[in-house]
């Protein structure tokens, strides 16, 4: 009988050792060994099968080239670029103060002819009006008289000098002639300066000896700059001049360059400097042009509490009209970036920024790390390499397709 117990005891001991030292032994072996010890009626339930791991969700949107074209998805290769930051402010077109002139008279008189009307173009030095003035006639007469007297005394002085050099006349006579000539010359120069002050050019003054006396009271009024007449302040026959009378005849503006008055808030003033580039757009037509800041008024406007910033804009076609309202963008930052993507290429997936990279089978949603950004683009510091093509237009369609595929799974 002891001999019959020996195999049973060995089986039980073997099963215990296997269960202790080989916990992962197959269930069938453990059952067989355990059954050997318990007899033919002993059975054990099999463990349930392990659950298979869930497959990872695909971040790939499969599209053919024809489907990409049909949906209107546009791709671009990413690369280096520059980040531009702009300050958006309102502005008003005004005439340049450096190219504005008021044509005025400097003597009393009567307007006898107006040669220009509103909107007419004038050249620099062109006659725009004629004036009759008694003061002009008297001043011209004084100058001519002083000139004749100075010329006569000059001849006497030169004769007395020649006689004195030959020791024919006395030194006293020579010195007296010299003093008289110098005195008359001073009076002639004073009369000439008075005519210059009244608006006569050097050529007009030199031509006075040949001018008819009937035109002595006539004065030509000339434009000091080239431009267009934007205002006429008098009519024919109007009395002009001093003593509370109108002195300005016309206002002329050269519109080849204009100024833009920009209203900048005090909080944005540290960002604005002279020389910065400015882009202006007309609110009515959408036309755009570029200029530069030329002046920053150091005092804030008492009514609006805004600072006046002046930008200059070339206007060769006179498209920009003074008084028009414009939207202006001041370039306040310009920095390089290694990899840049348009703002429209960035989509948020599971709370993180992603871009859709073009691959052979379609588009792959790839997480990226963003750095600095500007009005239109963003810098990518990780996740993209220069030269990779990403979806820059209609990328939201790819996001929707990716979300639909995830919902179906």
Observed structural traits:
single chain, 409 residues, conserved putative lor/sdh protein from methanococcus maripaludis s2 fold, 5 domains, 29% helix, 36% strand, transport, Beta-barrel_RND_2, Efflux RND transporter periplasmic adaptor subunit, MFP_Cation_Efflux, BSH_CzcB-like
Structure description:
The protein is an alpha+beta fold and 409 residues long. The chain folds into five domains: 37 residues, no CATH class; 97 residues, conserved putative lor/sdh protein from methanococcus maripaludis s2 fold (Beta Barrel), CATH 2.40.420; 92 residues, Elongation Factor Tu (Ef-tu), domain 3 (Beta Barrel), CATH 2.40.30; 58 residues, Beta Barrel (OB fold (Dihydrolipoamide Acetyltransferase, E2P)); 83 residues, Helix Hairpins. It is 29% helix and 36% strand. It contains seven helices and 22 strands. The strands form five sheets. A six-stranded antiparallel β-barrel has the order 3-12-15-14-13-16. Strand 17 and strand 18 form a beta hairpin. Helix 1 runs antiparallel to helix 2 and helix 4 packs antiparallel against helix 5. The chain is elongated and about 125 Å long. The two termini are 66 Å apart. Keywords: Transport.
């Amino acid at each position: 009988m002891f001999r019959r117990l020996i195999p049973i005891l060995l089986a039980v001991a073997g099963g215990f050792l296997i269960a202790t030292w080989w916990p992962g032994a197959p269930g069938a072996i453990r059952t067989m060994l355990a059954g050997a010890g318990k007899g033919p009626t002993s059975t054990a339930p099999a463990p349930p099968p392990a659950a298979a791991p869930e497959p990872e969700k695909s971040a790939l949107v499969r599209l053919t080239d024809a489907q990409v074209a049909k949906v209107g998805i546009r791709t671009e290769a990413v690369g280096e670029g520059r980040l531009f930051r702009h300050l958006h402010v309102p502005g008003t077109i005004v005439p340049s103060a450096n190219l504005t002139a008021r044509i005025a008279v400097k003597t009393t008189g009567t307007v006898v002819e107006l040669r220009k009307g509103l909107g007419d173009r004038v050249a620099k030095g062109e006659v725009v009006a004629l004036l009759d003035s008694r003061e002009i006639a008297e001043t011209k007469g004084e100058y001519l008289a002083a000139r004749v007297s100075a010329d006569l005394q000059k001849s006497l002085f030169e004769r007395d000098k020649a006689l004195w050099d030959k020791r024919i006349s006395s030194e006293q006579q020579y010195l007296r002639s010299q003093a008289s000539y110098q005195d008359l010359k001073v009076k002639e120069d004073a009369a000439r300066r008075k005519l210059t002050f009244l608006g006569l050019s050097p050529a007009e003054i030199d031509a006075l000896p040949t001018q008819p006396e009937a035109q002595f009271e006539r004065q030509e009024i000339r434009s000091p700059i080239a431009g267009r007449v934007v205002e006429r302040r008098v009519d024919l026959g109007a009395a002009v001049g001093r003593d509370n009378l109108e002195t300005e005849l016309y206002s002329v503006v050269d519109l080849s360059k204009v100024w833009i008055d920009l209203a900048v808030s005090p909080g944005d003033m540290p960002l604005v400097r002279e020389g910065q580039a400015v882009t202006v757009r007309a609110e009515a037509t959408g036309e755009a042009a570029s200029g530069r800041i030329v002046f920053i008024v150091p005092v804030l406007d008492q009514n609006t509490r805004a600072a006046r910033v002046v930008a200059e804009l070339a206007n060769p076609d006179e498209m920009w009209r003074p008084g028009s309202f414009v939207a202006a963008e001041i370039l306040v930052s310009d920095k390089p970036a290694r990899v840049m993507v348009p703002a429209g290429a960035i989509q948020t997936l599971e709370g993180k920024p992603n871009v859709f990279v073009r691959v052979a089978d379609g588009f792959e949603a790839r997480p990226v790390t963003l750095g600095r950004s500007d009005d239109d683009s963003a810098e990518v510091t990780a996740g993209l390499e220069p030269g990779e093509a990403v979806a820059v237009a209609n990328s939201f369609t790819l996001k929707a397709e990716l979300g639909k595929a995830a919902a179906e799974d």
